[in-house]
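Table 4 source record.
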Amino acid sequence: MRRSSSMPETLPEGSDKVQAVQSMFDAIAPRYDLVNRLMTFRMDVGWRRRTVRALGLPSGSRVLDLACGTGDLCRELSAVGLRPIGLDLSFGMLAAARTDAPLAQADALRLPVPEGSADGVTCGFALRNLVALDPFFAELARVTRAGGRVALLEVATPANPVMRWGHGVYFGKVVPLIGGLLSDPAAYRYLPKSVAYLPEPGRMLGMLGEAGFRDVSRTLLSGGIAQLITATRDASS
């Protein structure tokens, strides 16, 4: 029997959001990878590989993968000789993980790692599930060494009006249908709505700069349905 989440129909805030997101990912963990592959037509695989390449780190570098889920990014990091550690709030996702990387349960806003201990940080499709981005970016700056790199993969809204309309129909109607048939309906009704949590792109890049990063950039992927944000930890901050 499939487990259902307690995700509310309205977008939760604060501590309610933490509990709702954790419950949601615990519920959808068993079929999370299957639904991802189907609803993105496997484009998510290429997006993750590009995220890893964008780090530009030498072999052997230590990389924290935040909101690691079932370990997709951890596997890609390992494949190019990097040393990932996966951290996720959801025990269900960690239990379903398919990676040899070390894994631990942790809140991305309170990471259990020393200051400057990571050469790089990745995070896939989780920014909109965090309670707030300012403390998250501050935590990224705390754990990333000077000169280290971060690569944050997230959904986006296409700028082209026609693509934006089509994407809105697909993401708002088709994705919840697929997710509801294969997994938890409430979770996949929430996920399209959760884009509303993301600030305007320019503001988001500015927040990273204010947190202590330089060379902050944003690249749109697959016509603008996904975005990759990269930055380098400033040695002077």
